[in-house]
């Protein structure tokens, strides 16, 4: 408690942060388990495929991809190795840019992502959205916008 | 969009979930970077030490520990290997319980955790709490309570 006071935090404030972590852990565990059971696809793989699918040309520099998912640089390298072995992602050098490799979504990767997406969306609905009333979802959005992209 | 409708989600609802992920990624990246620079301690290690410090007898079964942090079982095993090598955690068998090993916080681990905690708390304050007004923190707490431990 003294430590908290020294750093200008109250116990309640720290509790809110830890609730955010717990909420994230709980929902993430459900999604992970659903994706593994139904599609043999870990959530981290799903997230990487989804980030690539939404990027222009279905490709991202490894550094940019690492910024978008919660993986260390070495963890991401191992994951991309695995996805490449499974044919879901390829690595490509950039002709006019020496800043390293791109990870590129393959057609097989896009198909795998499409297969898994209904499972993912059902999990988001049942484990997150369905626990909040419509006005709470709107309030949550306002609060999270401040946290996700602070000005 | 058709997919979303099929699963009963709106685009706004999915966006809120992804904001929660982004907020978590952003804050987590800051904490990770601060802890590495100041204490050469990855955030995952900090989280494990903190979970053990708060458990009765400063010990948790590997399975219970895995439930509390966002790591796969194999990722946790590797991390505990590293922490054990550094003397921050020990492994102990449980005399009257065959359900596997405990991870136990050592005195050195407790000291390392104490050193790093001010950095961690400052990060939580500057990257999370300071971005919200006091009434927003209270509202966030109410919403997250529903998500962290649904009844």
Automatic annotation (TrEMBL), chains A, B:
UniProt GO molecular function: DNA binding; DNA-binding transcription factor activity
The entry's keywords: DNA-binding
Domain HTH marR-type residues, every copy: 13-149
Gene3D superfamilies: Winged helix-like DNA-binding domain superfamily/Winged helix DNA-binding domain
A Pfam family the protein falls into: MarR_2
Biological process, per Gene Ontology: response to stress
InterPro entries: HTH_MarR-typ (IPR000835), MarR/SlyA-like (IPR039422), WH-like_DNA-bd_sf (IPR036388), WH_DNA-bd_sf (IPR036390)
Name the UniProt record assigns to this protein: DNA-binding transcriptional regulator, MarR family
Organism per entry: Nonomuraea maritima
